[in-house]
Amino acid sequence: METDKLTVLTIKHLKDKNKLALQEMTEELHPYDLAELYRALPEKHHFKFLTYLTSKDIADLVMELEPEMQIEVLEKLGIERSSKIMDIMDNDDLADLLSEISEGKLEEYLSAMENDESKTVQQLMSYPPETAGGIMTNEFVWIRHYYTVRDAVEKFKSFAELTRNIYYLYVIDENKKLVGVVSYRDLLLADMDEKIDDIMFNRVISVPTHTDQEEVAQLIQRYDFLAVPVVDEQNILKGIVTVDDVIDVFMDEAQEDIEKLSASGKDIDFQTKAVVASYRRLPWLVLLLFIGLISGTILDSFEDTLEQVVALIFFMPMIAGMTGNTGTQSLAVVVRGLVTNDTDRGTILKLIWREFKVGIIIGIVCGLLVFLIAMFWQSFVFGIVVGISLLATLIIGTMAGTVIPLILFRVGLDPAVASGPLITTLNDIFSLLIYFGIATSLMHYLI
Amino acid sequence: METDKLTVLTIKHLKDKNKLALQEMTEELHPYDLAELYRALPEKHHFKFLTYLTSKDIADLVMELEPEMQIEVLEKLGIERSSKIMDIMDNDDLADLLSEISEGKLEEYLSAMENDESKTVQQLMSYPPETAGGIMTNEFVWIRHYYTVRDAVEKFKSFAELTRNIYYLYVIDENKKLVGVVSYRDLLLADMDEKIDDIMFNRVISVPTHTDQEEVAQLIQRYDFLAVPVVDEQNILKGIVTVDDVIDVFMDEAQEDIEKLSASGKDIDFQTKAVVASYRRLPWLVLLLFIGLISGTILDSFEDTLEQVVALIFFMPMIAGMTGNTGTQSLAVVVRGLVTNDTDRGTILKLIWREFKVGIIIGIVCGLLVFLIAMFWQSFVFGIVVGISLLATLIIGTMAGTVIPLILFRVGLDPAVASGPLITTLNDIFSLLIYFGIATSLMHYLI
């Protein structure tokens, strides 16, 4: 059913105070659709809608919503009801939610929750976000290597509720160290009396808790895993990261790359309000405005050259623009490549060398083109000035787009600093310096 | 083990003609690592390495390689051995590979393959790429609703080899129509004598074969599925798309977005040769070069204004740059948003209205800033010219970055056309027209 129709039906049920019909309807919905419905519903109906839902449904709903709306729901429900919801939420989602809540409120929620739930989630919250520990869930089922398949299946059945998104059972030894893994498929294929020892996979690939989330995502993608276990320094199993969380990581990383290329500021989507979007975009724009004024200062210092050969101005926007364009192209290759490639010295040096050659090739092609245009329009020397300038600025622009993000990446700076607009603005400055520099030095041939 | 060490060891085994040791080593490797090893190995060793591998290992290897290297492997092996490898490859990977091969060769391979394998893969190849049909595999296990769990597990066991990456059994009726789905987890939790009818999930979400791959990916991401069944118009089950393929779709889509923002040309990564990379980048650059020359023509037509107020030049790079910057920011929001949002009329109009307001806000802030700077540097009227120009160009730049990609998207044009550099170059032209237009109309106050 369409969200629109669902919304109308929901409002009808709310007005008729028909709790049963509403619950029957929401029971059929996937959590994602439930969240879509909640977003579509006018705010004045939110409270009543929530009171009509079962705790299970509210938990499903909250796990799908974005942080601001999650907090809205909690506030509408009050501490007591909220803590009940929190008890049934997945621990990793709950940890993310709680990390958004103010210090004081957090205490209240944690103490209202069930004791062991509260402890587990606090443990999860202790890991930095964007690491394996930060995105893992600690809801998994472990078994012993001396179990039979029957034992394993029994244990699995008794923890069935915990294991909604889980596809492997993990085998640990007496010290809780991870020693193997068995998939549901293995269990189905085995005889009930076989030993776990004989069917388990021993060479388990696991990651330490502090591993960067991007690395975890790469691992799962490369090996087509459904989940990867997370261990501490003693190889003790702490949790698992599942493939659905990894898809979200990939989406976030792509988003970050886009931000790098556009300096568009964090978290602007179709729904962001104009004032908020402007507020997030303005810092970059104001910074670029001042850097852009440097270009003016450069022009100012070449005033003599400009006044003597006004025709120079006409190629200025093209040269500055082209330098920015090739820089953006290189930046895109680097930014995207850093996600999927190793970043050892050899790879990086080879990349820089490759981009240098690219700069020369495109510099020669484009330089020759404008040389011909400028020559026929003005003079041979004028063509030389414009052509050589474009050759030089394209090489420099290409290198700037390659080297600047790599340096920032190496020194561990926020790579958003190496944004497309910044590279473009810097390349504006480089290109003006080169263009008018060459023109000034060849001035006596030009006039 | 590191790829470097593995490479050295492999070369040693090859030189010692120690086939057994090599096979023991490769058997331990995940397909991804095997492919990494093959890439790292100098080309002169490739042939011998391949002859030492088992057919199973070669199939795993080929499925992980990029198209050019896949074809290299096939050529080294010859038709007969290659067709044996193809028989054991996953059908969806094989279909992708065969679609890269020239018409004539294709015939040879297909006739050398086993008859039914060849038929199945030809069927898969008939679906357009980038659709559900194009990315699905037809290796799945179906069961009947009247089966018991025991029957289902028996059937599953006898097709175990087929089901490496598969996590559900699909239930079909006598007309092969899809009527339900059962996960491995459901089978483990159920009693052996229960009927599939009683434990299966009826409201299966499926997609038609012609569904865009991006939609399939969204579906799997939204509902945290591991796979989604693909059906034809009669609801007959044709294949399934699995979550690991969906991750690749997300990576590809992100790559496409990056290309849009940078006009960087298709398929340039760290390994692309300089000549190839230049060849792919140049068409865009040459196009932008000519568009950039239009800026020069505009300046030419304002020559009088320029000669009378030379100071106008100094703010020119900043104004043109800022217009490009805000355009790029808007473009990023639109390009990324189109992936995750619905694109109905209401959403789009709201977005355009939002960006218009954003343009006004940042226009006022930045315009006021340069008004002050220009006023103190030159005069009040000069400040007005620069400030008003920046306000106007920022609004227009923002709108261009929003509306142009949306129009291209709506008319179904290749959205790569709406690239960041193109928007920037167009905005250059708009900004010059506005800046010198305003300056010319206020000329008598300026001098």
TrEMBL record, chains A, B:
It comes from the Bacteria. Keywords: CBS domain, Cell membrane, Magnesium, Membrane, Metal-binding, Transmembrane, Transmembrane helix, Transport. The keyword Membrane applies. The keyword tRNA processing does not apply. Residues 136-199, 200-256 form the CBS domain. One of its GO terms (cellular component) is plasma membrane. One of its GO terms (molecular function) is magnesium ion transmembrane transporter activity. The chain crosses the membrane at residues 282-299, 311-335, 356-377, 383-408. It is a multi-pass membrane protein. It is found in: Cell membrane; Membrane. Homodimer. Belongs to the SLC41A transporter family. NCBIfam families: mgtE. Acts as a magnesium transporter. This is Magnesium transporter MgtE. It comes from Salipaludibacillus keqinensis. The lineage of its organism: Bacteria, Bacillati, Bacillota, Bacilli, Bacillales. The gene is mgtE.
